[in-house]
UniProtKB/TrEMBL annotation, chains A, B:
Record Gene3D superfamilies: Alkaline Phosphatase, subunit A (3.40.720.10)
SUPFAM superfamilies: Alkaline phosphatase-like
Keyword Magnesium among record annotations: yes
Stored SMART domains: alkPPc
Active site (UniProt): S222 (phosphoserine intermediate)
Name of this chain's protein: alkaline phosphatase
Protein EC: 3.1.3.1
Length: 664, 664
């Protein structure tokens, strides 16, 4: 059937068709300018420029038998000014030209046929630059016989005033709004449709959503999206504050400075990082490190301490003030770090080093600190607080089973505030803390809904505790708190499941009839702790914190599902003795895990069979803001907007190259 | 494994466990008070009270061999006052006691065993009441040997001022935030991660979300949730501005007045209803009608015209000012309406009556109007604008195939504004319009993603056009525009699908490998119309309106999924020649439809096999507000809050029984 009224509109505006694979993700044309068209900058934000002239040998974009023209150059014009050569504009000497080649597949058919497209490249990088004057900049690359790639860059206006002294930026990794609805249902109670208590996040005076898509793809990964939140620049997948160039190498890529780095450079401010993941993971890494490959864990740990290394011109970095999380595996001696223990190295640089919650709590608040509590990720809230026997299996930094002395997100975050606040006060500056509820994402990937929602509730409990603690230490009025996610997972609750009935049935189809929808969903069966006081609407307080259910295995659980699934079995019950592994690999790819949810029914997946887990999704994710500047965070935003809003609240924009002394 | 730290918390706070089936949905105890505990009222809002004393014969709540005590009575106290009998408080005479019984199943096991629980009931209703003084009211029912059910009601404070003269309330039925993310991806373009144009909704200065759960269930239907939005009272499933009592009858239930009814009663304001569904459907019906059974279509059409009928004390209703939608089937002569054509009846009452877009546009703006364009629902935007051959199958109000002269949501809404504005001006009052993008929900239920997203984009285009039109007619400054959903569906986009590759594969597992995730999602392949002007960021304008793609069948489509699914096949392609029917019934329940998506791969469902469609979900849904009072609509709200905020903007709260003359 013909789309009748559309034939007239046959001329299409954009030549960019989606392809399964891209030549170079951040380069729509053969003449590549990074940062690309449409980039916005904070005034005085440090960045690198890279230009490439590419020539594919074959395929749909073949050029000149694969030979790029030797002549290629970049011009730039400030607002109202003339285009001048980039070297003149910034007062640089012309760098050496890089020459190399790479290959890629144009689509799945080409991959199946093992028919790659080779591409030859000429490239130059200009490093450690800043634009100081707010306004619009026109940028033009000339390449391959006079073709041009044009870019418009905008330097945002300077802020009128400094609204906040401190910023705490929480990231609920993978936390879509649907998960907050579900977490609220488990941890709080309604009477006749009215919640008697709510999430702390529900009270945020600044509220909106942000779009998480990447530079080159509408589905992001966590490196890319966290970089957008922290630098104000969308990246390509796996990129940490560095645009992925075509070299395939991890460290030459053009870098952009984060708001955390700017805060340190301009104010000498205190910077701390907390995560429940292994601490070299993408979100914590995006706070201050730079690489196009988030998997460069050894370098990331080193960058936390000493900044950008190698021959890349960048300014000095004196180390984060604290780093709390999991992932001791990346601190152990190995070939990547000259067989030196990073624990020893950090201790040698004056950091307190700890491995347990007990040691964390004993830290001197005046000293910098490194605390790593587990070999991999920190244990989930559910395992630390409910199914605690599972901690017998958790691995200590030293490699032993039985990591019982682990902190939760709240413990780490409150201690981080104490250290940052104490040190900032002594140095007459402020602090910035990034605290990540990292395991929401990890548990959503493996379809372990109870563990994921436990992490969501832990984040909410942590925000509530931070709010109270900031008030106690007199910093509430000066501290902007932002809570958001880096992306979502397609997830929702659609009813209740009578698990007793499900388990009593013998066929997959009969088991599915345990699901109650609409009126048969009923009220939440996840009971709240005793001590409830609905009359004064005080928060329900349980043994583990505020706003958690006491039952994770009621007869009537939440019936729930995901938009993107591998083959798996579903029983709508909490996994009391293990974290889920929904699918395992066989010769045809990932398939139902015979050990997982044996009492459940089978669901065939809709993802490629190379995927054994769920994946990230498109949905705009929520943004919550409290404190000075919260009013900046409202409505529908784009992920980079958050960096600009934080910069505005902290007044980070500068029309000169400001460098403040930092006192260790 | 034992949840170790939770044993201490064995005393649970709430006795209400979720059950698959409820005795009486709105009555947690055997002594039933409606409106229930926790109800909030607008000052002067009209409502009924009902009390019931129930006595189950057997089961977990059995009482006195199934004999409720004859003595049961209700007392009420105003803020700071003493409890007095409800008849004294309101100056009423005691109504007659109703005596009846009903049965229900306690759970799925009881249903499988055909073992119902009989319940005997005594009940009284007090009708057509108002509370005028803001403050807290304590309500106490004594029943069954001195047991009590207590309720707290709050009458909200009066507004300080009137902010808005007119209100346009858009409902995107079933529209979760994830669908806006997807619709934006199809209808708008990014360059390097920055959208060059966006949804009109993205610009809303008032932004938040609202919780859609019901009185008795965490998953709502559309009657219930629209009633919450329009009356400020959560209902039980299928209830339209009436609390479902235990009689099982449709019309005796205690009613609550909507903000549309209040606006008419207090100001004599103009009230219009527009929907793309059959016009007796739940969302339009919730504007002014009252029944516990949304399926009472014949009564609903009659109530639009003449208000509440029968012996129920309520005030007169002079008919809606306009009604535009589908559903001629409910206007035809039949036993429910004394074999009178409702078209004739409305014409006899002075309404202009039309059946086509041409007739709609020719309506006199000074006269009341009824326009019904199709036998059932109006055709989707996709069928009206892209796959227009499908209109050959659409059925006219007269029952003929080929309903080609149908309006879209924009046509109906703009004409409605012209009529309401003209008539309101002549009568020196304002107007309220409810306009529903109803088919988002219908298409989400049948997993027809392209049709659903077409409806989302049509809603956005309509809001944009309304904004411009209000400016033209000089009403923009006086008109509050609210856009929200009544509930969501668990849905998300998680990548792109190479449909060419999918169709070339021969097995289900190989077809799934057509999905590209993360970087392989790429950019949207849904092309935008020519005439794009990215430099001045003007909206892309195509032949059908603003912000629609010109391609609905690119090679690379959105890979997407739902949290709740029946058995179905997925091919990630637009259905060009039919609306989807994912599953069909066989002897074991709903099963894969062999005619649907034959090129796709099979996915087994996770819903009970009695379900052939997707179902509603828990996710909080977005709220957008423009115009005077928009600042009231921010952050995390509960669905009833919206009615209170509209009432506040319109200053509908009154401390006396105000009745203004209404001029037809």
């Amino acid at each position: 059937m013909v789309a009748s009224s559309l034939l007239l509109a046959a001329l299409l505006a954009s030549p960019a068709f989606a392809q399964t694979f891209r030549r170079t993700a951040a380069c729509p044309s053969l003449g590549c300018v990074l940062p690309p068209d449409q980039t916005d900058f904070i005034a005085g934000q440090t960045f690198d420029i890279r230009i490439e002239a590419q020539a594919p040998v074959n395929g749909s974009e073949a050029y000149n038998n694969g030979t790029p023209d030797e002549e290629f150059h970049l011009k730039i014009a400030g607002e109202g000014g003339q285009l001048v050569d980039v070297t003149e504009f910034f007062g640089l000497t012309e760098p050496e030209v890089e020459r190399y080649n790479f290959t890629y597949y144009e689509d799945l058919f080409a991959e199946d046929a093992h028919a790659p497209t080779p591409v030859n490249v000429l490239a130059k990088s200009y490093r450690n630059l800043q634009l100081h004057n707010p306004g619009t900049y026109e940028v033009e690359l000339t390449y391959n016989g006079g073709q041009t790639t044009k870019a418009t860059w905008v330097v945002e206006p300077l802020a009128d005033c400094k609204k906040a002294k401190n910023v705490i930026f929480f990231v609920g990794d993978g936390m879509a709004g649907s998960m907050l609805s579900a977490a609220r249902l488990l941890g709080h109670k309604t009477i006749n449709g009215k919640y008697q208590t709510k999430l702390k996040l529900d009270e945020a005076p600044g509220y909106g959503v942000q779009m998480t898509h990447s530079l080159d793809s509408f589905i992001t990964d966590s490196a890319n999206s966290a970089s957008a939140l922290f630098s104000g620049k969308k990246m390509t997948v796996n990129g940490l504050n560095a645009y992925t160039d075509s070299t395939g190498k991890a460290f030459g890529d053009p870098k952009v400075e984060t708001i955390f780095e700017m805060f340190r450079r301009i104010e000498g401010g205190q910077v701390g990082i907390v995560s429940k993941a292994y601490i070299a993971d993408a979100t914590p890494a995006a706070v201050v490190t730079h690489t196009s490959q988030r998997s460069q864990y050894t370098s990331i740990i080193e960058q936390y301490l000493t900044g950008v290394s190698g021959n890349f011109s960048w300014y000095p970095w004196e180390g984060v003030d604290l780093l709390f999380g999991g992932g001791a595996e990346n601190f152990l001696p190995g070939p990547g770090n000259n067989n030196v223990s990073q624990f020893d190295r950090w201790a040698g640089e004056g950091y307190q080093v700890g491995y347990t919650k007990t040691e964390l709590e004993a830290f001197d608040n005046a000293q910098r600190a490194l605390a790593i509590f587990t070999r991999g990720n920190i244990s989930t809230w559910l395992d630390q607080n409910v199914y605690t026997d599972l901690l017998d299996l958790a691995i200590t930094p030293q490699g032993e089973r039985g990591a019982h002395d682990q902190p939760g997100l709240k413990d780490m975050t409150l201690k981080a505030i104490d250290i940052l606040h104490t040190r900032a006060k002594e140095r007459d500056t402020g602090f910035m803390l990034m605290s990540e509820a990292a395991l929401i994402d990890k548990e959503m990937h493996v379809l372990d809904i109870d563990r994921a929602l436990g992490e969501v509730l832990e984040l909410d409990d942590t925000v509530r505790a931070v709010f109270d603690h900031l008030e106690e230490i007199g910093e509430l009025e000066d501290t902007l708190i932002v809570v958001t996610a880096d992306h979502g997972h397609g997830f929702d609750v659609f009813g209740s499941a009578d698990t007793k009935y499900l388990q009593a049935q013998n066929s997959d189809r009969a088991k599915r009839n345990a699901v109650g929808i609409y009126q048969n969903s009923g009220l939440s069966a996840y009971q709240v702790p005793e001590g409830v006081n609905p009359t004064n609407h005080s928060i329900f307080t349980g043994p583990q914190g505020e706003g958690f259910p006491v039952t994770w295995d009621p007869r009537y659980t939440i019936a729930h599902g995901w938009a993107a699934i591998p083959d798996h079995r579903e029983d709508y019950s909490v996994n009391t003795d293990h974290e889920r592994v929904p699918a395992v690999k066989n010769t045809t790819g990932y398939f139902f895990n015979p050990e997982d949810n044996q009492r459940g029914f089978a669901m065939t997946g809709n993802l490629g069979v190379a995927e054994g887990q769920g994946v990230h999704s498109l949905v705009d994710v929520p943004v919550f803001a409290f404190g000075p500047g919260h009013e900046l965070f409202r409505g529908v935003m784009n992920s980079p907007d958050l960096a600009f809003k934080v910069a505005q609240a902290l007044n980070l924009g500068r029309n000169s190259n400001v460098t403040a002394p930092y006192k260790k």
